[in-house]
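Homework help board

Subject: predicted structure for assignment chain

Our instructor gave us this sequence and asked us to write out the predicted structure in token form, then describe one feature. I got the tokens but I'm not sure how to describe them. Can anyone check?
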Amino acid sequence: MKTTNFKVVGDNYGLFFKIQDVSSKYLDLIRLKSVTLFIGIISYLKKLWTGYLDRQRYRKEVQRRLLKQRALKRERASTPLSLTGEHWTDRLLKIGRKEQGTRSKEVWIADGLLTNRSPRRPNPVANALLLAMTRCDGFGWNLRQWASTPLSLTMVVLLMCCAAKLKAQDTIKPLKVGDQIPELVLAHSINSNTSSINLKDYRGKLLILDFWATWCSPCVKMLPQLDSLQEQFKDQVQFITVAYQSRAVVDKFNAQMLKMGRGNKGLGLTDDVILSAYFPHSYLPTEVWISPTGKVIAITDEKALSAENLQKALVNEFTAKVERIVFIPYDSEKPLFNANNGGNGHDISYYKVFGQYVKNLPSKAITWSKPDGSVQISAINTSLSRLYQQAYSYNKIEMISRNRLLLLVKDSSQFLPPAPRGPVFLEWAITHRYNYELRTPAGFKEKAFEEMQRDLAVLFPQYQVGIEKMERPCWVLQRISSLDKLATKGGPEVRDFNPLHFEIQNQPLRQLVGMLDIKFLSLQPFPVLDETHYEGKVDLLLDANMSKVAAINEALKAYDLTLEKGIRSIDMLVIRDQTNYKPNTNQKP
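My token output:
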């Protein structure tokens, strides 16, 4: 007796086929490793069958009739049967045969029948079945035999279930507080004994999904706290960190962290798409609280993660909830607010838009120099101070740093929120954040910024704004020796950074100064200046806490560089109350 084994692996399940002598017994055993798949077969059949007919009705009907005709007439195909189309290949059916009168020895199954309904989302089970069938040499099967065997019917049922699963993944419905989380098996696990995580395994525990990223400073700061809480609650609570970034990026970051005695030591996932679809979020970190019974009980920020709240959640007394924030699509290539950011936006060469805060619209401020030479300035849900900084940043990118802004106004609440986030912040943002967008034709880049300055002067006449020279304390980057330890060795241009790492290769030194000034040290009151007078390109690698000057200086020693505090005359963006200003009660804002 000839026996062939095939193992077919899907997303959440596996199938095992043991095929014996086909002339006497076509299928000896089908073992389903997932009870969920088996139970779901009946419910999936009707849904998939309807959807499948909608997508492939014409081609499938043509193929079925041709196959049936050939099978009934025992017709031998002189050429492969082929239907062309977007999701079909010339391997739809190939019947290998020898000379006239011999039996067919190979059966090839259609890619279009058994596999992808979309080239972007392959069906791994169907692909494996296709591979298995194409290797059934020596069984003496011909087309009629395959079409009439129980194995063919079993394969169709299984493939329909697989396709139904894929359809479900395409139409994920976001979950809210009170919803039951589905049973999911998620790949790309880290710090785990297996390559995937089955959420069902954590029923009976309070489950916390921590959405994070390596570039997110609050997220990185939370990692030791997660480890501490995991140790404290042990088997009662399970934390799972969820990163959209790749395994390579997360592993590299963890390796850097572990050198400093820190790192993501707990259970986690990388390359996430599924959980982010179930729990859309605008801010990181975001914490999803799931009860021991699998119900979503809260979606919060990281501040809610405390031993006290975890204990309350374990006894069903935790009631803190925040509204899930879902991104509203925004395409920077099209005018803001115009026909849902669509329509004929590409035909507009000049426009200006101004409006109040829009809830759930992601905040951003960016200037685009487009290939056609036109310029677009976008400030979405931004503060008034940020609008001024962007307007005065032409050829002075340092003006967007917070430490270059000086408020000399009686009422700073027009510029500064009472809290960095939460309900109080949202209440303030409704009346103190704005949307502005300007596009100008080619050749008007400088004038675009001047136009924005004039617009703000008209919209907010109560303020006097300008750039002034002032003596201010600064962090000054200096060389401490004449030895050149910076010169690049060449190679590709590289810029890579996160809160604990900064690397540039074959780049100018101003890349470091700029990132220190507008990102890493932007919350400090001192701007960062470059007084190295180094003109060439450099290679630089700093493994340090990039928000701490002492840690940065320790890493800079290897390059004979240092940050020293000093007083310098620098440009500052100064906002003052306008003298003799008389408010117009009918004016907005």
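Reply (TA_rk): Your tokens look well-formed. For the description, you could write something like this. The longest strand covers residues 463-479. That's the kind of observation they're looking for.
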